[in-house]
Write a structure and sequence with these properties.
Elements: H1 2-25, E1 29-31, H2 33-62, H3 70-85, E2 89-91, H4 94-128
Antiparallel strand pairs: 1-2
Helix pairs in contact: 1-2, 1-4, 2-3, 3-4
Length: 129
């Protein structure tokens, strides 16, 4: 159960970091307010957790040549669904959609790789104390 909660926390934080990066780097990508970031990251994280394995299985079954792009494709689809579900996220223009998906994918992947080290290190230190 603890592992599931840590994975969920990492997924949420990774999405949040990716969304912040896209907002800072792209003029046509906007998340409104601190609460907006939290809401959008929660929606994004839940959709991504559900959609990513489905897209992965579909691509593996029907178009195995595209397996390397599964992450970016699922991020783009998740971004579209999140924008439809939340008024706190606005994305203007096709190039912004594509660049936002790439930026969110990159920053979220890096965060998902790095964050567990900090969380585990902190948990180990707290248990030692």
């Amino acid at each position: 159960m603890i592992r599931f909660l840590l994975n969920t926390l990492v997924y949420f934080l990774a999405a949040l970091i990716g969304l912040i990066a896209a907002d800072l780097l792209l003029s046509g990508f906007t998340v409104s307010g601190v609460t907006g970031y939290v809401v959008v990251a929660l929606i994004f994280g839940v959709i991504q957790a559900i959609l990513s394995p489905l897209v992965g299985k579909m691509v593996q079954k029907n178009a195995s040549a595209f397996q390397g792009g599964v992450g970016i494709i699922s991020v783009l689809l998740t971004l579209v669904l999140t924008a439809l579900l939340s008024s706190d996220l606005t994305v203007d223009g096709l190039s912004t959609w594509i660049l936002a998906a790439l930026i969110i994918w990159l920053f979220a992947a890096l965060a998902a790789f790095i964050l567990p080290f900090f969380l585990v290190k902190r948990a180990v230190q707290e248990r030692r104390d």
